[in-house]
Amino acid sequence: MKIDSGKKGLIINILSLIGFVILWQILVILARNDSFNIPFIRLRDIPTPVETWYALADSMFTRTYGPGLTYGIINHVYASLQRVVQGGIIAFIIGVPVGIGVGYSKLIGNLFNPVIEIVRNMPPMAWIPLSIFIFVFGGSIFIVFIGVIFPIILNTIQGVKSTDPRLIDAAKTLGASESMIVKKVVIPSAFPSIITGLRIGLGVGWMAIVAAEMVIRSPVGLGYFIWNMGDLGRYAEMVAGMIVIGVIGYIMNISILFFQRRFINWAD
Amino acid sequence: MKNRIKILSVVIITILIAGCIESKKTPEISEPINLVKMSGQEMVQRLGTGEIAGFIMWEPYPAIAVTKGYGKNLIFSGKIWADHPCCVVAYDDDWYKKTNNSDEILKRMALVQLKSVEYINNAKQSDSPDHAQLINYTMQFGGMTDPVAANLSLADVEFVYNTNVEGTATFIQKIQDFGIFDPMKWNQSEYRNASDYANSLITNNYVEWAVNNKDEDLSKISLKEPVNIRYAYLVNDIHELPFYVGWQKGYYKDIGINIVIAEGAPFQNGAFEMQNGFKANTVDVGSLGIPPVIIHRINSNDFSNDDARVGVIAGMNNEGSVIVVANNITSMKDLQGETIGFPGPGTIQHVLFLMEADKEGLKVSY
User: Fold this and answer.
1) Are residues B206 and B342 both part of a single domain?
2) Which residue among A193, A257, B260, B362 has its CA within the 20 to 30 Å range from the CA of B1?
3) In this complex, is the C-beta atom of A71 within 8 Å of any C-beta atom belonging to chain B?
């Protein structure tokens, strides 16, 4: 029986995941049995995949114990995703026009470039302490915004600059105004690049939101959940939260890739 | 590939829909009070700017907030539970086993605790000749500059040296009822019930020895060879003032104990002290709230080597925490849907707040 290369890849992917989980289980069990020890690392305190699975299942939905109400992971995912989407939309609305302006006009480029070059080198996490003090509300959305906007701006600039000059010349020859050239030629040409910027930016924003939620005060969010579980010594729940973050980040990435390939196929 | 994408799309949509339903459903259940973790300084600052409706915290932060006019005391923890145990003096079991004369050291630490508590309780009286000195110690340890706030912060703290097995068992039962223990770890611990656990946690011998020797001159019953003790405590926590007094007045030195502040101390809360101090073997003896001791000796413990095992030798204080609220709030019910600062899950303030909410029939998210 011949297996096609796509299926073969999928099988290897699945086997690699299963292998990782088995290796994780074995290493923790061996460490707990004192079979080996790595100095300065408390490997035995890491929950096993089985413990993590039970913790994930147990903390998926909101639970109440007497007066205490602990939100389910599903609520935390929703809250974090909501912040990423809000920050992403604001970054898209601001970043695309700025990127088009900087990429298309030398004057705007000279005006904005120095600020963009300095600010984009400040990682989103470096903004967390400042946002704690300046934002009464929405500090975590701001952190996402910082993470998303620069990949969008830079990719938009690159997309605009790589517009085929012959298309612009042709439009000019046909009597198109500057605004029409931007609208009808430059933006469609740059759009695939803009979406690539959005994909990269949302990836950065997702990582940043989790860090921001650990510091910026909010009762819901995956970062807050992980921190809280750590404080209670509920390490299996903590690791379950970390895995959920990884899975959601992966799903976000491939969803945008799918959207890009399915609907913006002129990029190819 | 297409199938995978379809499956993933279904997963995303399911999560979003489930999240929508859950997040809409939750407030309808109860309109909970939202507890959010923050430091004491942040609580005072955020109450002042109106970002939070209140906080529950150890002294001196309630006294500072009230003195600055940012808020008012709504409920003293003594009203939630009269004479409830709070901070304690605890030792690391690994250190205990490795040290030849650990029992002798712990007896003397309990005696210093007794002497310090007696000094504070006398000096708390405004006509005491030691009152000014006590206020200075309070300001230094609590990170305060205002003597009025320092005086106020002492008023609701009952300094003690006795242990409280019954109160500790009550805390254990509450922590169990509130679902804070990791059920798997609790089963591993093999404690039969709250009382069994409380008895295993607390040793009264040291305080008994201290009471019998309380009139002795410290230098006469000092250790033959001075020892270094790595000590940990909580940042600016007035509950632990007896430790600071014993240290500053030289009681520890007189009895042959050199206090060395442990790596990472002072800790921001008891959970950090248990996880990063006692469990990491960087702390020999320390003071912290009894709930973090109770919780982390179970949840953070590796029962194959008992690395988070600690023992309690003396009390530090009873009561001394306060729910402070914005001036327009008159009852716990007004806090529904509001954000309230607390020092972290599993702290004494967390458990006390849950107890008060339980009495009032309110829900608390954390």
Assistant:
1) no
2) A193
3) yes
Please give the tally of structural domains in chain B: 3
With tokens 């849907």, the residue in question is B337
**For A54, nearest residue in chain B (alpha carbons):** B184
**CB of B248 closer than 8 Å to CB of B137:** yes
B294-315: per-residue pLDDT in tens? 999 999 998 888 999 999 999 9
**Domain identity same for B196 and B271:** yes
Please tell me whether residues B193 and B103 are part of one structural domain.
Answer: yes
Dist CA B317 CA B167 (whole Å): 12
**Residues B100 and B127 grouped into a single domain:** yes
**Tens digits of residue pLDDT in B256-271:** 999 999 999 999 989 9
Structure confidence at residue B28 (pLDDT):
46
Amino acid identity for residue B35 in this structure: L
pLDDT digits (tens, 9 = 90+) for A117-139: 999 999 998 998 888 778 877 88
Residue A3 DSSP label: P
Cβ contacts of B37 on chain A, cutoff 8 Å? 217, 227-228, 231
Q: CATH number of the domain at A69-267, please?
A: 1.10.3720.10
> Is B184 within 8 Å of A51 when comparing Cβ atoms?
yes
Q: B256 and B137 in one domain?
A: yes
Task: Give the long-range contacts of residues B68-71, CB within 8 A, separation 24 or more.
Answer: B68/B44, B70/B44, B70/B326, B71/B47, B71/B324, B71/B325, B71/B326, B71/B327
- Give yes or no: residues B96 and B153 share one domain: yes
Mean pLDDT, range A183-190, rounded to an integer: 92
Where do the domains of chain A lie? 1-46, 69-267
Query: How many other C-beta atoms lie within 10 A of the C-beta of residue B10?
Result: 10
Of the candidates B349, B329, B347, B348, the residue with the CA atom closest to the CA atom of residue B337 = B329
CA-nearest residue to B8 within chain A is A251
Cα–Cα distance, A133 to A139 (Å, whole number)? 9
CA–centroid distance for B91 within its chain:
15
* B201 exposure class (CB count in 10 Å sphere: 0-12, 13-18, 19+): buried
How far are the Cα atoms of A18, B27, B89 from residue A144, in angstroms, in the given order? 33, 26, 44
Per the structure, the complete domain to which residue B1 belongs is given by 1-30
Residues B199 and B284 in one domain: yes
Clarify whether residues B305 and B337 are in a common domain: no
For B91-101, how does the pLDDT look when each residue is reduced to its tens digit (9 = 90+)? 999 999 999 99
B362–chain A Cβ distance below 8 A for any pair: yes
